[in-house]
Specification:
This protein has 135 residues and is an alpha/beta fold. It has a single domain, classed as Immunoglobulin-like (Sandwich). The protein has two helices and seven strands; from the N terminus they run H-H-E-E-E-E-E-E-E. The strands form two sheets. The protein has a four-stranded mixed sheet with strand order 2-7-6-4, with no helix packed on it. A hairpin with a 7-residue loop joins strand 6 and strand 7. About 10% of the residues have low confidence.
Length: 135
């Protein structure tokens, strides 16, 4: 009797498990193009950006990207000191980016993302993420 109950329970478990595995996708490929864009946008932290009097602390200061096209943004620090890229609403935080190093972030939602540098709060920039228009 006990053996029969175990066999029935095992058959039910295998059946339910098979249904769950069959009906679930590993990921939604409909939006995979957003996570794996074909291009990227570069933002430079120029030499002298750590100076409070810098005029262009991020180049470009405002960058526009399109989901699924170039929604990866790469920051490159060409200054002599470490800097960072931190979203004003804490959506992303690069940590310190050492001189001549890069940091990238893939934006996955439409919106405007303002950011700054933690050690240099006068350094401010914005990423505008737009939806891809299909024709």
């Amino acid at each position: 009797m006990r053996y029969s109950i175990l066999i029935v329970a095992a058959i039910i478990a295998i059946g339910v498990g098979s249904i769950l595995v069959y009906t679930q996708k590993p990921f939604d490929t409909k939006y995979d193009y957003i996570s794996n864009p074909t291009g990227e946008v570069s933002v430079v932290i120029p030499k002298g950006a750590s100076n409070p009097n810098c005029e262009k602390c991020y180049i470009p200061n405002v960058a526009k990207v399109v989901l699924g096209v170039n929604n990866t943004v790469q920051w490159k620090n060409l200054d002599d000191v470490a800097s960072s890229v931190v979203s004003d609403k804490r959506f992303f935080d690069s940590g310190l980016i050492l001189p001549n190093q890069t940091w990238s972030f893939v934006f996955q939602k439409v919106g405007s993302y303002t950011y700054h540098s933690e050690p240099h709060p006068w350094m401010k920039g914005e990423i505008i993420v737009m939806k891809k228009e299909y024709t």
